[in-house]
Structures are given as C-alpha cells and as structure tokens.
Amino acid sequence: MISHKYGEFADMQISDIVNIIRKRIFFLLVVAEKPNEFPNVNLAVAHTTLMWGISGLNELLGCPTELVMVLSLLEEALNNLQTDFNFSKYRKLILDAGAEVMKITPSKKNGGVV
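The structure assignment produced for this chain is given below.
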C-alpha cells in the first residue's frame, strides 16, 4: 500500500494508472498519425488535458522524478505540434514519454513513488 494525503493506494492501482497513462500518451501518436480517423479529437486539447491529469498525480504519488521528464517530453511534443510540426520528432518525443512513464513504480519510500 502507498500512503497519500487522502488515504492509500494499492500497488496494483499504481501499476494500473501507469498503464492507463501510457495508453493515453500513445493515443496522441495514433491521432497525429491518422487525424482523419479521429475528426472529433482536437490533438492539442487532448495533449493539454493529459498533461494536467499527469500533473495532478504529482503530489498524490509523492512527487516522482519521472513525472518531470514525462511532462517535459509531452510539453516539447505539444510545442512541436503547435509550431513547425515534424512528425518524426513528435513520434520520438511521444515514444520517449511512454517509456519514461513505465519507470514509475510503487514504493513506500517518502510515502509515494520513487
């Protein structure tokens, strides 16, 4: 069990949320690659919404260092999307963010994730 300011998370919950976040990150890549298949998805809004959700986990999970890198990579991907879009660069940033989020693991040290 992982203590947080509102109670406790089971290790399985942490593992599950990491997988959910990773899927949402990779969904951004799918939408960028095939925008015509997702006409109702605003990619920039989806990016921002995901980043705010990840930011909300920061305190609950004990401020894991990995979240800084995940948000940094997603921010750069969003900047790429909104300026001179380069799909190869965007893809690399998204894949790196997906890999980084998998480093978040349950730990009782510091009352959160390390």
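Interim note for the steering committee: The first helix runs from residue 11 to 33. DSSP finds four helices and two strands in the chain.
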